[in-house]
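Recap for those who missed Tuesday's class. We walked through two folding examples back to back. For each one, the amino acid string is listed first and its predicted structure tokens come directly after. Nothing is annotated here on purpose, so try labeling regions yourself before you check the end of the notes.
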Amino acid sequence: MLLNALKHWRALSLVGITLVFLWFLSEQFTLVPYEYAQANQTTAEIPQQQTPQEKSDNDEGNVTLSAEVLSSTPTKTVIRASLNTHSVDISNVEWISAISLKKDGKVIRPISSVDEGAGHHRSSTIDFPKTTLPFSVTGTNIGGVSERILEFP
């Protein structure tokens, strides 16, 4: 019997680890519908929102530019920018040249970007040199509009 169990020690170990992991998750998270949880919390119990507010322009030229600050490390600031439209071709927008930061009158150019989407819905995660708030995200020459400014106080 013991020899037979030793043959399957890997599978038994995996089952044990899985059970411990599931127990840990059940202790850490309560599986309750979001609406129920929100309705049964007082204002003091609602946790602070961890991500900064997303900013959007006023849909000039039938294109909406949205941006949010994702993170800031000692060496870089990461912005997520999105373009949405249903009537303008935005496939030729180059994020590296179209999006910049402005702080204290200085224009700060991106270091790199990782682009997503195509057609009418595009986004990019853009890395900038470390820049502290307040600053503005500026989009240039997007959808026939020379400049779009999103303020981050």
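Example two. Treat it independently of the first, because the proteins are unrelated.
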Amino acid sequence: MKRREFITLLGGAAAWPLAARAQQPATPVIGLLTPQSHESATPFLEAFRRGLAESGLVEGQNVVVEYRLSEGRFDRLAEMAADLARRQVNVIAVPGGSATAIAAKAATQTIPIVFGVAEDPVKLGLVASLARPGGNATGVNFFAAEVVAKRLSLLRELVPAAKSIAVLANPANAANTAALADMEPAARALGLQIKRYDAGTSRDIDAAFGALARERPDALFVAPDSFFFVRRVQLVHLATRHALPATYPIREFVDIGGLMSYGASVTDGYRQVGVYAGRIIKGAKPADLPVVQATKFDFVINLQTAKTLGHRNSADPARPRRRGHRMNKREFITLLGGAAAWPVVAQAQQSAIPVIGFLTRHQGEAHQRAT
């Protein structure tokens, strides 16, 4: 070519990077909505990022995460979900329970949603079926509502003298109604009487424990609910204060002093939500991703709390001895000593119970034994 044509061509080449940059896709954005506080959510958000990494995404490099934490304000979830929808994020991740998932589903019918819920997502109206979700949502089912009978049985094993069980439930959580109904036949089979106490606010929780102090049931069953998870410090404190043996749906209650828990790993659920969010960013359709069902269940006992309850119950002369009275320290620790065999028995009855853990305040972490 001629010199003039060559110079013209070189001049046009300088514009290539600008044109190419204009054609490059923008960095994808994931909106994450949870009712937790920044402090309590830290380990779960780390698990979510691990899930993203499994799908080849690293926050700050090839994906942006917009966080919306309502700090326990459930009344703000709808507003926050609507804000993420207006921003047209690529995916909305709601691993924090049914309230966040329902808020996201109400905010958009087009933006992909990845949820983490304890209840049946079909009954919640989030998906058409577990195998073929359809629509714009898929995610993880923790099965917390489905194992209430098992939790009741384990509580009976731990407190064999118990006859009356208080059940704390959130009346706003309609999905728990059917699950708690399953407790009735299970309780009858175990020779237990159950009584429900409702609590949907922090004040309700205080009032419920006031009633428990007067009526003095033998043990407490805390129903699975995202509000109770946010208020777990209050619940564990009150149960300890009233020397009331309590079973909780997940181990995070036990980590801060609760007596016992049996349920799926919420941390692993957050990780799986991250995996699915990453896969959708990479091109997968939520309608084609089956709902993941939890396969890892933890049965955890806090030994320090067990010893404390044993001391208090044996050293309370004002408390009348009666049938159904909670066990003394020696009985309690003896039962804990035989607890190592429980997962073996339970495994024969149920397919996935891989871990039993004992948590002590001094050691800070649960000692776990895989089965």
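Answers for example two:
DSSP finds 16 helices and 14 strands in the chain.
The radius of gyration is 25 Å.
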